[in-house]
Amino acid sequence: MSSAESQQAGGKGDRSGPEAGRMQGHWLFAKLGKRILRPGGRLLTARLLEQAKPASSDDIVELGPGVGATAEVLLRSNPHTYRGVDPNPEGRDAVKDILRRHPDAEYVVADAQDTGLPDASADLVVGEAMLTIQSQEAKHAIVAEAARLLRPGGRYAMHEMAWLPDFTDEERETARKELSRIIKVGARPLTLEGWTELLAAHGLAAEWHDRAPLHLLEPRRLISDEGLWGALRFWRNARRLPGARDRLKAMRQGFQLQGRLMGGIVILARKTAEPADG
After folding, report:
1. Which of these, 201, 52, 65, lies nearest to 124 by C-alpha position?
2. Whole-number Å distance between alpha carbons of 44 and 48
3. C-alpha radius of gyration, the chain, whole number
């Protein structure tokens, strides 16, 4: 996400009050010790990777590895190479600590729209919780870059947010604005059809998808994602950081309300088709 988008969403424009009240939601979670920052949680990512089938012969690129939770899973397959691409300093040390144990793994400081990596150099590209916060133009640029990196037949595994069916555009826009205000990042989900069309525009054919509710801060999801001790540590850290408990309470309420209209989605696509405009 660009600095301009972050400021527009309120992530850096408000300098007053406790730090916990000003941070973008996902980095507040990370600061409090949460490792699973994806909207559908650990289990939805696990279902996605079961479909993607990372293998020892794969060259894998992960766009925006965050604090490295998915990187750990991908590296268990002992891929031929792994490259995590992220321009942000948050989470970088955590990811590098994971990669040090794998000689064929590399951390690349670059933007997902322009990784600088060679054409057709990946068998699997993974991107989670990054496209939703981008403008439509940036969404296209990132997916185009993923398609450029993939070899023919390569897989693109994504985990984002999607609208649930049967709501009006007005209802969705109201929910989008409210969620953006709460998490201090501009949220711009698409419908399942919107995500599929975005992929198809860059020669990526969606083969499979699954969904999960927006339960990031629900106790059962926290324990599922972080384990019992991890969840207890998260709440203990929240009590110690000024402003964190109030912010988490507001975000949980927001997720409950806006989660009626949206949730996590995972899609596996394959580079088999020509771009829709070509």
Report:
1. 52
2. 6
3. 18
**What residue ranges in 86-216 does DSSP mark as E strands?**
105-108, 122-128, 150-163, 204-213
Q: Do residues 68 and 62 touch, judged by C-beta distance below 8 A?
A: no
Q: How confident is the model at residue 11 (pLDDT cuts 50, 70, 90)?
A: very low
Q: Is the pLDDT of residue 207 over 70?
A: yes
Spacing of C-alpha 172 from chain mean position: 20
Which pTM value belongs to this model? 0.90
Q: How many CB atoms lie within 10 A of CB 178?
A: 14
| Spatial distance between the Cα atoms of 147 and 114, rounded to a whole number of angstroms | 12
Q: How confident is the model over 231-256, as a mean pLDDT? A: 95
Q: What is the pLDDT of residues 102-132, one digit of tens each?
A: 999 999 999 999 999 999 999 999 999 999 9
Q: What is the pLDDT of residues 56-66, one digit of tens each?
A: 999 999 999 99
Quick one: pLDDT band at residue 277, thresholds 50, 70, 90?
A: low
Give CA 87 to chain center in angstroms. 14
**Which tokens belong to 45?**
């990512």
Q: Residue 235 to residues 32, 146, 246: CA-CA distances in angstroms? A: 8, 36, 12
- 97: helix, strand or coil: helix
Among 123, 103, 134, residue whose Cα is nearest residue 58? 123
CB 115 within 8 A of CB 109: no
H-only helix segments in 76-160: 92-99, 136-149
**Helix%, strand%, coil% for the chain, nearest 5:** 45, 20, 35
